[in-house]
Amino acid sequence: MARIILSVNAGSSSVKVSVYSAELHQSPVQLAEAQVSGLSAPPVQLTYARDGKTVAKNKEVGREAISQSDAFDILVKTLVDDADLTQIKSKDDVGIICHRIVHGGDFSRPQLITTETKNHIEDLNDLAPLHNANSLPIVRACLRDFSAARNVACFDSQFHSTLPPHIRTYPIDPDITKRNRLRKYGFHGISYAFITRTAAEFLGKPRDRVNLIALHLGSGSSACAIKGGKSWDTSMGLTPLAGLPGATRSGSVDPSLVFHYVANAGRLSSSSTKDLHISRAEEILNKDAGWKALTGTTDFGDIIASSSSSPEKKLAFDLVVDRICGFVGSYYVSLHGQVDALVFAGGIGEKGAELRAAVVGHLACLGFKLDEGKNEAEGKEAVVRDISGEEVRHRVLVCQTDEQMEMAKTCAEEEEFW
């Protein structure tokens, strides 16, 4: 019996939903997808597509900043009110709702959301105060308003539950780290699960025999070493702040830097609430850093386009390339050079031909090489495409990652969620 699955992906500035029809143990079929963007930088806009055709694009739905919950309400109303989306006439037609939750702590697989699970996720807020908070209000609303649906939490950290002890452990007092759950968790795992599955299929290899270095590059960026289809190492750590720089995140810096940067780094910021404890240091390094701090813009496309004429933007571009190459080199050694492919994904990874060319150019010594024509071609239809040059030691791929599909597919495979 087919069920309607709603995949919900709540970010800091947007909320995305995808609607699927699925049967147990069958691959879901997408019916519609919608996004409300501009939550933190109005105007707030709606983009909606049904059956692969655009119904609304960047339609303004508000001039004021709104919450993730408000955005979700707009999306649900858009779906229910669409007479041509016959599969959803009311909220009761939704059978499963899967939620992307950034931090899942020690959860190694998706969880049916019960009161106990919800409370556990809320307990993780201190580990990811700037991230889980975006998803939890929508989870609460779905538990309240979708009486016929089962809610499932899919964690960005779960893919990295396979990190070996010597990689996930921080060299500080073990008793304190255990008590406070301080270790490398890693994130973007739903994306990396999709990348691993689709890249293995593209390469014609069993998933458990594929070795990849994957790059999820966007406003939040990370790298991941995948060994035998499982996460071996990743650039993010206890929180998504570690590793590569992002639009407003610093990435890895000297841990003492922030205390020299501002005198009150350890104090709670004005953004804190009784439930969310956000230090000034976390706020600075997550929201007031990254390439926006260097250039004044979060638009990496603009940075690429202007890097030849703007010293600040050239610095930001070169810095990002350098940091990416540093992780690729480290992971290449960690995988003993046994790498099937380097995979670019995420908004910048999928669209940034100039960035890919710069990164792979630096990696030529490791046996990576691009075909210039393939790299510059858009390739919108292919989920995975090969942009490698001829006679290369390792392949270079571009993957159009799809976190909503990965969540829906996971739910369709698990009987307990039905």
From TrEMBL:
An annotated Gene Ontology molecular function: magnesium ion binding
Annotated substrate binding sites: R100
UniProt keyword list: ATP-binding, Kinase, Magnesium, Metal-binding, Nucleotide-binding, Transferase
Protein name: Probable acetate kinase
NCBIfam families listed in its UniProt record: ackA
The UniProt record lists the keyword Metal-binding: yes
Family per similarity comment: Belongs to the acetokinase family.
Annotated catalytic residues: D156
GO biological process: acetate metabolic process; acetyl-CoA biosynthetic process
Species the sequence originates in: Schizothecium vesticola
Catalytic activity, reaction form: acetate + ATP = acetyl phosphate + ADP
Superkingdom classification of source: Eukaryota
PROSITE patterns xref list: ACETATE_KINASE_1 (PS01075), ACETATE_KINASE_2 (PS01076)
Binding positions for Mg(2+) per the UniProt entry: N9, E403
Pathway assigned to this chain's UniProt record: Metabolic intermediate biosynthesis; acetyl-CoA biosynthesis; acetyl-CoA from acetate: step 1/2
Matching InterPro entries: Ac/propionate_kinase, Aliphatic_acid_kin_short-chain, Aliphatic_acid_kinase_CS, ATPase_NBD
Site (Transition state stabilizer): H188, R249
